[in-house]
Structure formats: C-alpha cells, structure tokens
Request: fold
Amino acid sequence: MSKVIIHLVDDNDIDIAVNSKLMKLAQIGDETRVYGNGRKFIDAIGEHRQELSAVSNIVLLDIMMPGMTGFETMEEFNKMDTSFIDHFDVFLISSTIDRNDIKRAEDTPRVHKILEKPLDVYFLKKLIEGLQD
Amino acid sequence: MSEIKRILYLDDEENNLFAFKALFRRDYEIFTTTSPQEAVRYLNENEVQVILSDQKMPEISGVEFFELTITDYPDAVRVLVTGYADIEAVIDAINKGQVYRYVTKPWDENDLRICIENSFDRYFSKIEIKRKNAELQELNDQLQKFIYSASHDMRAPLASIKGVLKVAVSEELSQKAREYFSLIEKSANRLDDYVQNIIHYYQNAQTETSIKPVDLKAMAESLVTQYQGFDVLEKFSIDLEVLSSTPFYTDEYRWRIILGNLLSNAIRYRDQAKSQGIIKINIIQNSEKAVMRFEENGVGMTADTLAQVRDMLQGSERKTLGSGLGLYLIREAVRRLSGSIKMDSTQGEGVAVTLEIPNLQ
Reply:
C-alpha cells in the first residue's frame, strides 16, 4: 500500500490542531500537512506534483474560509489535470452542515462527502478504507 | 403609488360614456372608450384603479374583457355594468373573483357614486395589505438570515471546543481533570444541541425531503460516536444493533435529527441513582420499512409529562422556539418521513420509543 498524506485545509488554528491530533490517534495517514487557506493548498500541491503523484492524498477541506471558500478551492483544484488529481480524495468539513451545502458537495466533482466538525475520525477512517478497497 | 384616482370605462353606447363622464369628471380622472383595444392601450400607459365595463358589447363581453386584463392588471377593481338582467354572466364573473360589484343600467346616480367610492376604498386597502405583507416577508427573511448566521457563528467555536474535548478524552488525565472536562463537555453539548436544533428548525421549514439509499447502520454508528465523550464513555453503555438487508430509501438528515435528539435527551436525563446509564438502539429494516426501538434507563417521566410529550409528538400546532424544540423537530422529521412514533415511559425506569419509517423507494 502506498504512502498516505493527509492535507488539512482550514483557517481555524484550533481545528487544525485538533484534527491533526485526531488523525494521529486514529492512525490515519503517514503524514499530515496543513494549510491556512485554499490558495496555499492549491499552490503547494502544484509545487509538489511529482512527490504527490507517487502517494495517496486525502484532503480535508474546510468550507467556510475567508478569501477562497472550500467550494471555490475545489473549482481551482478541478482545473488541474486529471492524471494528477486522480491521486487525491477530498472530504469537505464544516461546523454547520447546511443542506444546500450537501447538495452542492454532491454536484462538485471529486468530493466524497461533507463531514461535520468535530471530525468523527473513526468514521473517516472507515470511509478512507472503503476508498482503498 | 400615484395619487391620481383613475377610472376606465368601456361601453359601446356613447351616451352612457358621456353621462358617466359628466357625473364624475370633477372627482376622478376618467377615460372612456367604446373600443376594447383602446381600453387596453390606456391600461398599458396609465395606472388605473377602477375599471368599469359594459357586459353586452359587439366585439367582446365585459366579463371577457376583465378576463383578458386580469393577469396584467390584477390589482384594479372591476365593476360590471349590465343593461338588462344578465344575471348568469354576473354571477359567474363574481364567483371567479374578477368582478367586485355590478351596476344595472339605467343607473341610480347615488348608488353609482357609492359603488365607485367603495371600489377605490377596496383598491387602496388591497394595495396597503400587499405592502404590509411584503414588509412582513422582508422582516421575516431578515430575521431568518440573522438567526441562521448567528447560530452558525455560535456553532463554529462550539465545534472547536468539542474537538478539543475529543482529543482530551484520549489523554492520560487525573480523575479530577476528567471530572472537570466532563462538566465542560456536558455544558458544551447542551449548548450545541440547542444551537443545532435552531439550525434544524430553520432548515426544516425551507428544505425539501431528499430521498436516497441510506446505510442506517453507518448513520447510527456515526451519531453514537458523536456523543461518546467523557460523560458517555464513563457513565453509559450504548448498545447499537442494526439489522438491515435491502437498500433503505429515506432522508438521512431527518433520521439524524430524530436519533440525535433521542440520544441527547437520554444522556441529559440520566438517572443518577443508577450506577450506569443504558441506551439500547435496535433497528430492524426490510424492503418495506425500518423499525427502531430506542430504550434508555433514565429518570423517566411522570404520567402528566408523558401526556404532554405525546401531545407534542402527535399534535399539529406549530411550536415556537423555546423548550420542547427537540420534540417539535422529531415530530416534523417523522411527519416528513411519512412515519410514526410512539413513546412510553415510567418514572424512575426510563423511556422507550418505537419509530416506524417506511422505505420510500
């Protein structure tokens, strides 16, 4: 099984700290990288194409962020070439799950699901295991 | 809104038009014509509050003329003028709501004057009600937006607090620290349940039911883990059993409202006299329906309280925000899922709930 890198994209420091720790506790992924906003995430993965193309990537992307929202970030993300973004699985995260957001997430390519904060990491772990089967 | 009071009068008999104009031209701005086309043109270019039309005309009947113009000028008040007792047409038109009054020819001047005055009153009160309704709608929209964004802004930091608690629960902590965290958690959960219910309350009214195949087991498991903090891990045993075979079509969001509220109530109303809180959730599902049995050993309810709760669950009155919001949301969710819910309770022994939801495939 290839290496798994978790990408946490969230403007909230506390949630970043909590989610990184929860990932460790649930033993999800081999490495966690954090980004304070969507722009940084898009730029960073663009710079590490080669490295990231050799591993599996799980993205946890917050919806409510100043500047670029999670949905706007996904628009940018989905503009990248398919052969590259095929290495990524994306989950949106949000503290309030609005039903319109669920609908929107279903219509957004490459988003698996919206998850509510605080993250249920064991549920996430199951979801990720399901992806790899 | 123009202050000029305008009347349009359509009649194929010019004499009537002259007589009418002579009678009212000092009080109103009056346009008279024998041509329906010209009448429509005038309506296009002027704000007319009262339209009079003769019923019997060669090109078009009065009722037909009203029908023709009702969509474009719904607010104008219509008065039908009939030369003879064409009562059928009048009844028909009044029943269809197109005609406010009718006047028989030859008219009595006083009656006609009163009829016109009433028509203008009617027009202006209609407009006033419309304006007030629009104002109310606007205020209501603003309120909803405010409550929605306020509850969202409250929920975000609460979710962070709950996240920290989730991490803390896995740490090695002294007994004292665990107790304190447990107290923080209880209050955070209570506030969070309330905030989330406010959000659900507003979403419930706005959103349609969305039917999809749902894995009831995964849904229930993820909800139960959400509640497994300090308090629950130490003082509760939650037993979840789900027997499901075929795909179950339902609205997951509404299931979560029901089960979430039942769980948080069971946790909140734990019986301190018992060494452990027990929650048993059993879901059996087949191609027709899902039956959930939810049992807990909390403090239970007195007969009076149970009767009130049942009223709330079965009743139909619209619950305002405040206490009992959770019950209201359960009831609405069950209703939208076309299901039924029954609740039993004995004081000191706990609560048992049976929920039946059809497979909406």
Remarks:
- Residues 208-361 of chain B form a domain with the Heat Shock Protein 90 fold (CATH 3.30.565.10).
- Chain B has a mean pLDDT of 89.
